[in-house]
Amino acid sequence: MDSSRLLGRLQEDFDLLRDAVAAADPAARVPSCPDWSAADLARHVAHVYLHKAEIIRLGAFPESLPDEHPDPLTALDTAYAVLTGRFSAHEPGDAAPSWYEPDQTVGFWIRRMAQETVIHRVDAELAAGRPVSGIPGDIALDGIDEVLKLFVGYGSTRWKDDFGTLLDAPDQRPLSVSTSHHAWTVRALPGGVAVEDARTGFDGDALVSGDAVPLLLWLWNRDGGEAVRRTGDQALLDQFHALRTAATQ
Hints:
Pfam families: MDMPI_C, MDMPI_N
GO cellular component, one term: plasma membrane
GO molecular function: metal ion binding
Order of helices and strands: HEEHHHHEEEEHEH
Helix content: 40-55%
InterPro entries: DinB/YfiT-like, Maleyloyr_isom, MDMPI_C-term_domain, MDMPI_metal-binding
């Protein structure tokens, strides 16, 4: 996806996130992350923004971060300004270290922060007791692709220990993940999870399907999945549920 599109959406979702945090009681629990208060959520997002800004500034993963303002909303505003300042000072193709070996560019972090902000904006709206604002279909599709290929696929090869025993003797039959616009084939292997684009959403022994937005939220454990259809072999569906939970914890 074009970085300018992601940057534009980052701004829109940050505005929604900030507005929801400002409206919420700082002590209000975040239903989708019950260990967090609204203030904790704001501090977490601020910390993430500062960390990525420092990666770009230093050209390395930082050992420490600048002190953050004690007020969560001020910390959030400051961190966002620093992050977007770094993005503005660079081209998406400029070098920047990342945890994803195939993409060591500023563009990786533009995408990652746009998708991070979408999900935490949903968290903030839930904490404020507001209806969840819409997510554009193209952003949701990109988010699904990121979860499946980077977090489930790449993550299962780089941080295999995070997946416990799930890949010791996995069911290697294919599972399909499908929306009306795109489909992926997911296959758990002893060395990690293979994720590939698929021609159709019906080439597996089990199928997870739905519209892009509820599917994205379900993958990130932000939705109960009522609008996500799960059909086919139940053992394969259970394995996929465990894999995506391990990848997004």
